[in-house]
Task: inverse folding
């Protein structure tokens, strides 16, 4: 995984934990926003982010995009990280399946570990 992918996944875990029984502190949430910003997660995972020069309401962040990215691997669509990370918390930090990396051989929309 790339550093930006790891940062995006970490942020989503923090955002999900903010919705759990033990809410994250304001500092953790701000740190997550910072990570999304510096890692460029919204560039791909937020619809219309680039076309609106980043002026997208935060409630729409990381919800995926129907815009496909084409390359030698075919076409890849940005995952809705909010849905993908629902089973992950800041403490468990793992999942059994992950989004498809175009450079790997995949089956369906996810890759087996």
Result:
């Amino acid at each position: 995984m790339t550093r930006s992918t790891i940062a995006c996944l970490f942020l989503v875990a923090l955002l999900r934990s903010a919705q759990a029984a033990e809410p994250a502190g304001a500092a953790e949430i701000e740190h997550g926003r910072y990570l999304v910003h510096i890692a460029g997660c919204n560039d791909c995972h937020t619809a219309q982010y680039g076309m609106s020069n980043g002026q997208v309401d935060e409630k729409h962040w990381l919800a995926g995009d129907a815009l496909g990215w084409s390359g030698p691997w075919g076409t890849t669509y940005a995952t809705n990280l909010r849905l993908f990370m629902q089973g992950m918390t800041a403490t468990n930090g793992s999942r059994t399946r992950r989004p498809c990396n175009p450079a790997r051989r995949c089956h369906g929309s996810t890759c087996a570990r």
